[in-house]
Amino acid sequence: MDGNLVLLLSFVGLLLVGAPIAVALGLAGVAAVAIGLSPDMVAMVGSNTYASIAKYPLIAIPLFILTGMVFERSGVAGHLVTLAESIVGPRRGGLAIVATLVCLVMGGMSGSGPADAAAVATIMIGAMRKAGYPPAFSASVIAASASTAILIPPSIALIVYSIMVPGMDLRALFAAGIFPGLLAGLAVILPTLVISRRKDFGANESTVRPPFWPSLFNAIPALMAPVIILGGLRSGLFTPTEAAAVAAGYGFIVGIVIYRRLGWRDIYRLLVDSAETSAVIMIIISLAGLFTWAGSTLGGFDAAAAAILALSENGTVVLLLVMALLLLAGMVLDGISIYLITLPLLIPIATTFDWNLTWFGVLMAMNIAIGQFTPPVAVNLMVTSRVARVPIEATVPWVIWMVLSMTVALLLVILIPEITLWLPQALGYRI
What we know:
Blueprint: H1 3-16, H2 21-37, H3 45-53, H4 60-73, H5 76-88, H6 94-110, H7 113-130, H8 135-146, H9 156-164, H10 170-199, H11 212-235, H12 240-258, H13 264-298, H14 300-311, H15 315-330, H16 335-352, H17 357-371, H18 379-388, H19 396-415, H20 418-426
Helix pairs in contact: 1-2, 2-13, 3-13, 4-6, 4-12, 4-13, 5-6, 5-11, 6-7, 6-8, 6-10, 7-8, 7-18, 8-18, 8-19, 9-16, 10-17, 10-19, 10-20, 11-12, 13-16, 14-16, 15-17, 16-17, 17-19
């Protein structure tokens, strides 16, 4: 049997029977190598699996995960909510806007959509329920808003992209994601406001606006985290990997010394939880590396890329087909896995049409962000629905409007690449 067919069928079959994504990737790679190449080639599985994670920049991933958990559990989100309320003020849809703003800032600390969704949903859904928002609507808003974490630096998915694409400058990628991330946040706010006013959501919102200056003062330690990360990168004071270590250290200072919300038990628990999360991601990366090596060695990715290129000579048509493929993948897989599985196929296509790889990486991230809150799987929506105690099916009438709105934002970024590229160019980064 052809090794490429074995690779595809075994991967899809394992997913269908409920195998974890890492297991499916690894076993499919081993089966393809053993059948498509030679049983003797299986001896190279260990070295290729290790080589996938033996990369210095990957150290940033567990450190940024730790940073996100520190800020999540040190009371940062609560202070950000108060600050956002003081800015937005009492209005129809006000708390929904607050939830989106907090998600945007929290995304600049965690780099993970599900972590962002969990932190904000825990605080906001109860308050939104009291204010008159249906739990399913609240879950939809927060899930959609938290998806911007894959765009706002320090996005873990963008770190993976920078490692897999030769010559990619992570600083340029981080800068390129900022304005599309803000545009995505605006794409959530607009339908949220319209729906809230038409359905009279938030009728019981408090009419008392928190004082701005005390709220800002209390939130400054949290707001400084993105400033330290991006400022340090821009000044050249530290590399992206060093920025992750600095951010984690600063998070502990904020949680232990400033907000005083972290005790020894809390520190132990978040170290354990971040280690578990990091281990899962690293296992996925290592076994996806095996899958990628098998597909590349067997020539499957080249053949698939050639098949896509044969569909049309028009770069725009091919790009829209790629975006549709990524959207479907985003509904069932996490962002990191999508990058790991599809990039060996997509980079040759991007090179053929001379697409800017920084712009293309952000397009991928924005597309995957939409998938994170698009049923049936929708990892962010799974988190917020669980917190809100509603079935995912109940969110569909609300979340579909946010999916459509963010799709329009994605089309704007496709049509106007300068939305992505002007900031890294202004900062002098190589794109």
